[in-house]
Amino acid sequence: MKKIPDLRLSALFILLIFIIQTISSSVFPLITIIAINMGYIKNPNPVIMLTFILVFSIIIGVIMAKIISKRVLKPITDLNEATKKVAKGDFNVQIEEIGIGKEIKEMTHSFNIMTKELKNIETFRNDFVSNVSHEFKTPLSAIEGYATLLQDENISKNERENYIERIISSSKRLSTLSGNILMISKLENQEIVLDKRKFSLDEQIRSCILSLEHLWSEKNISLDIEMDNVVFYGNKSMVSHIWFNIISNAIKFTPNGGLISVKMKNENNWVKVVISDTGIGMSEEVKKHIFEKFYCADKSRNDSGNGLGLTLVKRIIELCGGKIEVESQKNIGAKFTVKLPNITET
Questions:
Q1: Helix 157-188 vs helix 102-135: angle between axes, to the nearest 10 degrees?
Q2: What angle in degrees, to the nearest 10, is found between the helix axes of 102-135 and 46-87?
Q3: Residue 265's pLDDT is what?
Q4: pLDDT tens across 215-250, in order?
Q5: How crowded is residue 136: how many other Cβ atoms within 10 Å of its Cβ?
Q6: Are 335 and 264 within one domain?
Q7: What angle do CA 85, 90, 96 make, to 5 degrees?
Q8: 186, 219, 303, 325: which one has the fewest Cβ atoms less than 10 Å from its Cβ?
């Protein structure tokens, strides 16, 4: 059994052929009859007139068929030429989304989406290679340098353990960096959030806080948690990166004995999450750049990160249709307000 869209498209072409045949077989004979009645043609020979009508009807039909088919087949011929360009590696191709049938318009629209995605993949690949070559130099140089020092048989046990620890630290930094670069590059060239499902948002944030317990307990940081029960519809894995990055930053820049507050409210169709700390805060200049890729406010700090965490946070929030706001003062603390649209599954 054929699908309904296929039947609609077939019906459209049958209708076009019927219209062409009807017009070509009736227009010229009608003109001939009018000409005879008005006396322009006298004593017509039936055989000659029939032949004459038949020939001109065919000519008119061919002309009309050519005009209509050109209109109907143009999107298909454009698609054929565009496909050839894509096959040669040109992903900038976009074709006009026109056509008589709905299916043809959908086909050209789908093609345009495909070329955009292919272009995004190519951009993602180029960005990844560029970022990797730039950002990997420091940890790779450190690993190479300390590995070279380990070859010296005269170094002490403490020195050897120190070098090994630094190599492990640089390796972990490489692993984190590669993962972040891969994710941010992918999300920058993504417009649609996939794998959406319902999950408990407050439970997710609590799990994130517990996973970071070794960090905030070590610094004796107090927590003030107040969250509504919220069932959220979205990509659970992707959304979790928002809380992990913001909370881990709050822990990192909050001194011993400080306070971190996490509050969440469900306001109509919006979820509002406010994460604040009593940390070192940031200047107005730093606030302007914190969401920029690879930006680090203090490059002299070993724990300053790779400057991708908040870039990742902002992009995920944008893909979810939300927004993020930052309030902070130097040596007072910072407050991140995240608003996400909580739209139920349709």
A1: 160
A2: 20
A3: 92
A4: 899 999 999 999 999 999 989 988 999 999 999 999
A5: 15
A6: yes
A7: 65
A8: 303
Residues 244 and 111 in one domain: no
- Weakest-pLDDT range from 1-5, 13-17, 96-100, 332-336: 1-5
CA atoms of 98 and 71, how far apart (whole Å): 10
Three state DSSP letters for 35-75:
HHHCCCCCCCCHHHHHHHHHHHHHHHHHHHHHHHHHHHHHH
- Note the pLDDT tens digit of each residue in 20-69: 666 666 666 676 677 667 766 666 666 666 676 667 666 766 666 666 66
**Strands in the chain per DSSP E:** 197-200, 222-227, 231-234, 259-267, 270-277, 323-329, 333-341
CA–CA gap between residue 94 and residue 81 (Å, rounded): 11
Identify residue 324 by its one-letter amino acid code.
I
- 314 and 273 in a common domain: yes
Q: Does the residue 277 lie in any domain?
A: yes
Do both 246 and 286 map to the same domain? yes
Looking at the fold, whether 212 and 276 belong to one and the same domain comes out as yes
In a domain, 130, yes or no: no
User: CA angle at residue 173 from 171 to 175, to 5 degrees?
Assistant: 70
Q: 341 and 325 in contact (C-beta within 8 Å)?
A: no
- Our CA dihedral for 223, 227, 231, 235, rounded to 10 degrees, sits at -40
Report how many domains make up the chain.
3
Specify if 327 maps to a domain. yes
Containing domain of residue 214, as a range? 197-341
User: Which pTM value belongs to this model?
Assistant: 0.55
| Residue tagged 């139920």 (tokens) | 344
- What CATH code is carried by the domain that includes residue 201? 3.30.565.10
Provide the residue type at 255 as one letter.
Answer: P
Say whether both 236 and 334 belong to one domain.
yes
DSSP 299: T
